[in-house]
Amino acid sequence: MLLKKIIAKKEGLLIDIEGPLVSRIEGGNVYSDALTLLKEFSDLKIALLTNIARKSSRYISKTLSKYGLNFMSNQVINPTKAAINQVLGKEFSRPVRVYLISEGGHYEDIIIFDWIDIVRNEPIDAILLGANRNITYQELNFAFRCILKGAKLVVLGGDLWTYGSQYRDEGPYLMEGAFAKVLEEAAGVKARYVGKPNREIFIEAINFLNLPKEKILMIGDSVKTDIVGACLIGIDAVLIDRVGNKDVELRELLRDISCKSDIYYTRSLGPSSETRKITYKY
Fold this sequence. Notes:
The chain is of the alpha/beta class. The chain has helices spanning 3-7, 32-40, 57-66, 79-91, 105-110, 137-148, 176-187, 199-209, 223-233, 247-256; strands spanning 12-15, 45-49, 76-77, 96-101, 116-118, 126-129, 152-155, 161-166, 169-174, 192-193, 216-220, 236-240, 263-266, 275-277. The protein folds into two domains: 3-51 and 197-277, HAD superfamily/HAD-like (Rossmann fold), CATH 3.40.50.1000; 79-193, HAD superfamily/HAD-like (Rossmann fold). α9 runs parallel beside α10 (247-256). The mean pLDDT is 94.
């Protein structure tokens, strides 16, 4: 089946950024097939669903425009927005006092909400743990003490590590998920993760599109976050596998979860690219 025939049945798209659209948000390149796809289906509602939160939605929007990808910042759905609207806004009494561990991008997305107070002293209602490659022992220990006193640990993402660069230092970096595991183990608590594949970020995106789930298609390159997340929330999805090494991983994971969504596999996002439906048993 051609990819464009699958998309033509939908009214909205959720698209991951790194992998489907660009190789990397910073210092990468845009994929020509993604540009073609977006041009052909410009009439659809689109949201970018990403676990990138250390950079604000405004920064991501501005950076993508340099690649010729023109999206408004409100179209960028990240863990920070999901935490604000689906966790803090629904489960906490206002105003909410939060201790934020961040490189700065999270702050830009949070500061516009006047009912959230970003503070550095107790009492603390919630610890918001985001990616921060300059994290200190003092920050972690203060968060640990607040958690012991009842503050909730909310993780803005969840990756254990990622490849990146900072100050000419390029290589693998520990991410927020690794530090969350330390706090969970030390404090004997379970953190609230709001990045993909968890429900909160998908609900945030679905609410933004304002469409029924059966009218939405997820396009992503990660089996564990994009495809599993789509299955868990009940929307159809396409795995874009540019290298061609994720077919087995996809089938194995789909055997382990109960998925009633239609899942497709493709090597290209060109509208006329061949896309096959993955069959699985559960």
